Each structure stands twice: as structure tokens, then as C-alpha cells.
Amino acid sequence: MKNHHFKPLLIVALCLVANSLLAQDIHYSQFYADPLRLNPANTGNFNGDYRFGANARNQWQAVPVPYNTLSGYTDWAFLRNQRSNTPAWLGAGLRLLADQAGDGKLSTYEIQTLIGGHKALTPNLYASVGGGFTWVQNK
To answer: In terms of pTM, does the model score above 0.85?
Structure first.
């Protein structure tokens, strides 16, 4: 006997969860410049042992108080198993953001810790999963 009520409940649950998800900051137009904000699964997903990055955006100079956004990130790749035909590794990272918006001086501060796992399925294909915890303060 098939459960016909499962599919509608799953769709409703996914819609409720999707409504609470947040993604890219609206002040960044070049989303690829902040890979950890784009997707936590990018944590540790690069050629190398570590990387650092910073972004600064000052926009709308014509308004009395322009919007200012500063962010920085760092992440590390470790526990690489290169001896296998299908390597696997972990990544850990930290991301910071400070944003001040206009005359109202609405400020947002974020600190995020991230972790990602990566597993090669074939020499040319791999799967990644990531997540993190974020502290946000809005003033």
C-alpha cells in the first residue's frame, strides 16, 4: 500500500523551510567573490591548503550616507587522502561581515563558522556538503 499523503506533506515542509533560508547579501553583485557566503559546501574546496579573501563595497555615493559593506573569509583544507583514486578531504572556515545601510544606519554584523566535506566519486566528479553556524546582530 502506497502512502499518498507523504508527497503533499513533503512539498509543504520544503516550502516552509525554503521561506526561512537566506542566501547572497543584496549588496554584492559579484557573488563569486565570496565563495563561502555563496555556498558553505565551498569550504575547503580549492587547490591548496588555505585561502583568504576580503571584499569591500561602497555604493550609491549620490545619497547622503552611502551603503558600506565589508567582509572577509578564510578557510583551510585538511585531511586530504591523495593516495586513493577517489580522494576525500575536509574543510573548515570563518567568515565575517559588517554592513551599514544609508541614513537609517541600519547595521548588520555576522560571524560564521563553516565546515565542508568533499569526496571524489570519479577522477572528474566529486560531491560536497557543507554547513555552518552564524551569529547575526542587526542594529
So the answer is: no
